[in-house]
Design brief:
The chain has three helices and ten strands. By secondary structure, it is an alpha+beta fold. It has one domain (11-163): Alpha-Beta Complex (Nucleoside Triphosphate Pyrophosphohydrolase), CATH 3.90.79. Strands 5-1-7-6-10-9 form a six-stranded mixed β-sheet, with helices on both faces. Strands 2, 3, 4 and 8 form a four-stranded antiparallel β-sheet that branches. It is globular, with a radius of gyration of 16 Å.
C-alpha cells in the first residue's frame, strides 16, 4: 500500500484578469503550444511567495504593459490530468490604472504572445479563435450568466469552473 502523500496531486496555480472597457475586452494571442494563434485573457503562473492578485497584476503588466487594479474573483477553473499534475486558474475582474485604456500603447513579450488587443465583446464571445473558457469568463464578466455556478462545459473533462456573474 502506498503512503498517502504518494497520491497527492502535484499542483500549479495561475491567475488572469478580465478587463472590459466600454464594450471592449483586452485579450492576448498565444505564440506557442497547441493553442498558438488562439486568444486568451492576460495571465499566467503564480510565482513562489506571490499572492494570486499579485500574480494577476504582474502577468497583466508583463503581457500588455498595462497596470491594473485587481477587483473581485470572477472564476476558478480546476484542471485534472491523467498524470499527477493538476492546475487551478483563478480569473479576477480588473480595472486599468489609465484614464483612457482603449488608447494605451500595448506591449507584449514576443516569445510568449503574438499580440495584445482590445476586441469588441460581441465578437470575442463568438470568435472560434478565442478559447471557450475565455468566452465563458467574458460572458460572466458581462453578467450574461446568473449566479455562482459550476460550469462543466468549458473545454473537456479535465476542466471544471465555477463562474460568478
Amino acid at each position: 500500500m502506498s503512503a498517502p502523500h504518494e497520491t497527492f496531486a502535484q499542483s500549479t496555480l495561475g491567475a488572469g484578469g478580465l478587463l472590459i472597457v466600454d464594450g471592449y475586452v483586452l485579450l492576448v494571442q498565444l505564440n506557442y503550444g497547441r493553442f498558438k494563434g488562439h486568444w486568451i485573457l492576460p495571465g499566467g503562473m503564480v510565482n513562489q511567495g506571490e499572492f494570486l492578485h499579485q500574480a494577476c497584476q504582474r502577468e497583466f503588466q508583463e503581457e500588455t504593459g498595462m497596470d491594473v487594479r485587481v477587483g473581485a474573483m470572477l472564476s476558478a477553473r480546476h484542471r485534472v490530468q491523467d498524470n499527477p499534475h493538476c492546475n487551478l486558474y483563478v480569473v479576477f475582474l480588473v480595472e486599468s490604472e489609465l484614464d483612457q485604456p482603449l488608447n494605451a500603447k500595448l506591449v507584449w513579450p514576443s516569445s510568449e504572445l503574438m499580440q495584445a488587443k482590445f476586441w469588441p465583446v460581441e465578437q470575442a464571445v463568438k470568435d472560434p479563435m478565442v478559447r471557450p473558457a475565455t468566452q465563458e469568463y467574458i460572458a460572466a464578466g458581462q453578467g450574461a450568466v446568473s449566479g455562482l455556478q459550476a460550469n462543466k462545459n468549458l473545454t473537456n473533462q479535465t476542466d471544471f469552473a465555477w463562474v460568478l456573474s
